[in-house]
Structures are given as C-alpha cells and as structure tokens.
Amino acid sequence: MTPMPLPRFERLLDARGPALGAWPARDRAAAAALLAASPEAARLLAEARALEVLLREGMPRPAPEAVARLRAATARAVARRPLPRTVRPELRPWLSAGCAALATVAVAVLWLGTASPAPRAEGPLAMLQALPVAGEPL
C-alpha cells in the first residue's frame, strides 16, 4: 500500500482523531504505511493522542446521583406522554405511497391544464426572443 500524503494524514487526524482503528480501512492502511516511513507523521499521531488524553482527563465527571435523577425524570416524562394515535385500518390503503403518488400526478395535471400557454413569437429569431435579457425577471 502506498503511504498517504502528510497533509491528508493531518486533515484526517484532525477530523477522525488519533484512534486509527476507527478510520476507514483504506485510509487506515495508507496511514499505517505513512507512519512506518515518516517520523513526522508518528510525531503528529503522538501529539494527537496526548491531546486526547489531556482532554479526557480534564472533563468533569457527573455525579452518579445526578445521572440517576436525570434518568428517573426522563422516564417519568416519557411515561406521562400519551401513546401515539394509530391510523384507522380502513384509511391505511389511502395513505400508502401509491395513493400519494397518484394524488401528486393528479394535482400536477390539473395545474398544467389551467396554465395559459405563453405567446409564441414568429420569425427567424423567434427562439432568441423567448430568452430572458439581463435585468428581466424569468
């Protein structure tokens, strides 16, 4: 496998993080080839891993009691909500995708049927007269 260019490696490192196992297989293989050949890429990966550790350690941990209260409040709120209304069985066929497509076509036909045709210009330059000129609304 050919190694990826160092700028691409830097972009992927910023976008996907230093856990190379989470990268797509194609990028992972090219990154491994680059890491084997480039001390600069290895240095960038080490810096990204160190930064990730610092960020993870610096994040405050929520108190277990607070998490338990939040979960209980969420469960109570969900339990109080009414169940969703179901569609009556006799209406289900009318709500299918086929009926919706048929209704869309019917509306389009009605709309096109009521539109008045544009006036036709005559003469050798008729097609050019139909084109909008700069500043004219379409």
- Low-pLDDT windows of residues: none
Q: What Rg do the Cα atoms give?
A: 31 Å
**Approximate shape:** flat
User: Can you write the helix and strand succession as a string?
Assistant: HHHHHH
Strand content: under 5%
Give the proportion of residues in helices: 55-70%
Largest β-sheet summary? none
> Care to count the β-strands?
0
Mean pLDDT over the residues: 82
Q: How many helices does DSSP assign?
A: 6
Structural class: mainly alpha
- What is the distance, rounded to the nearest whole angstrom, between the alpha carbons of the first and last residues? 54 Å
Outline the secondary-structure elements:
Blueprint lengths: L5 H11 L8 H13 L1 H20 L5 H17 L16 H18 L11 H4 L9
Helix pairs in contact: 1-3, 2-3
Structure characteristics:
60% helix, 138 residues, 0% strand, 6 helices, mainly alpha
